[in-house]
Each structure stands twice: as structure tokens, then as C-alpha cells.
């Protein structure tokens, strides 16, 4: 009985050497959290990060964006804007949009009011309000 066990161990050892198995490295499989984010913390999201670092949000004038939806919740209102390329952006009050850096000042039931700082030809700055509205639903208006 003992000879069978010794023979099995000898064959097992020779087989593992032939297959290239070597002694395991002691550093393999160790995890180091240094330099990594905490997996239990929710990452902080910035609306500009959602829009490819904000480049698309500030590339076009405000008038070229289309308001697609208004999302109301207890935490506040959010809007869904579509840029000329068809990319969607979720924003909220206080965020800036467009080449003129218009700020979302109010979100109403069917429209959003933006406040933009405009400089006239004399160099005087004025605040102007611009409005984007949801598209009219023709089939439900009857």
C-alpha cells in the first residue's frame, strides 16, 4: 500500500515539473489599495464629466441645443439637453451651457430659463434671459 502512495507522489511531482509548474511567487495575488479609489464610496459626478469633459457643452451657441425632457424630483429638477451632434446631456439648475456660458437659472413646467452675460459693442455687460421650451405635442393638443 505504501509503494502505491510513493509512486503516485513521484508521478505527480514529475508531472508538475514537466508541465512547467514552479514554486508560486509569494507576491502574486496580493492586493494593495494604495493609489486606488475607495470602492465603497460613490464617485462624485460632475455634469461636465458626463459630457466628455464639457467640450460639447461649450462648443455650440445656446440656441443650437434642444430641450428634450424636464425631470422633476424631490431633490430638484434636471433637464435633458441634446446638442447639434445628437449627444444628450443631463444638467440641473446652476450648470452652464453654450458658447456664452449661459447659466440654468429656472426650470419651469415646459421650459427652462437661462441667464447669459452679454457684452455689447461698447464693452458694457448686461444679463439677458433666454428660454428653451419643450417641443409642442401636436397629437395631444386636440
Overview of the structural elements:
The protein has helices spanning 2-18, 47-50, 55-59, and strands at residues 66-73, 76-82, 88-92, 96-97, 102-107, 111-119, 125-133. Mean pLDDT is 78; it is low at 48-53. It has a domain at 47-134: SH3 type barrels (Roll). It has a 4-stranded antiparallel beta sheet, with no helix packed on it. Strands 1-2-3 form a 3-stranded antiparallel beta sheet, with no helix packed on it. The longest helix is centred in the N-terminal third of the chain and has 17 residues, at 2-18. The protein is an alpha+beta fold.
CATH class of the domain at 47-134: Mainly Beta
Order of helices and strands: HHHEEEEEEE
Distance between the termini: 94 Å
Q: Give the CA-based shape.
A: elongated
- Helix proportion of residues, in percent? 10-25%
Order of strands, widest sheet? 4-5-6-7
Biggest β-sheet: count, sense, barrel?
4 strands, antiparallel
What's the structural blueprint in terms of helices and strands?
Blueprint: H1 2-18, H2 47-50, H3 55-59, E1 66-73, E2 76-82, E3 88-92, E4 96-97, E5 102-107, E6 111-119, E7 125-133
Antiparallel strand pairs: 1-2, 2-3, 4-5, 5-6, 6-7
Describe what is shown at a glance.
The protein has 142 residues and is α+β, with helices and mostly antiparallel strands.
Amino acid at each position: 500500500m505504501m509503494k502505491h502512495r510513493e509512486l503516485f507522489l513521484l508521478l505527480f511531482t514529475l508531472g508538475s515539473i514537466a508541465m512547467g509548474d514552479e514554486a508560486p511567487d509569494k507576491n502574486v495575488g496580493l492586493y494593495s489599495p494604495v493609489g486606488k479609489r475607495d470602492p465603497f464610496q460613490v464617485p462624485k459626478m460632475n455634469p461636465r464629466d458626463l459630457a466628455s469633459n464639457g467640450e460639447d457643452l461649450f462648443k455650440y451657441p445656446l440656441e443650437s441645443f434642444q430641450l428634450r425632457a424636464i425631470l422633476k424630483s424631490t431633490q430638484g429638477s434636471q433637464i435633458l439637453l441634446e446638442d447639434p451632434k445628437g449627444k444628450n446631456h443631463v444638467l440641473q439648475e446652476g450648470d452652464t451651457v453654450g458658447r456664452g456660458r449661459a447659466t440654468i437659472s429656472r426650470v419651469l413646467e415646459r421650459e427652462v430659463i437661462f441667464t447669459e452675460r452679454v457684452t455689447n459693442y461698447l464693452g458694457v455687460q448686461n444679463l439677458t434671459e433666454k428660454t428653451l421650451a419643450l417641443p409642442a405635442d401636436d397629437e395631444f393638443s386636440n
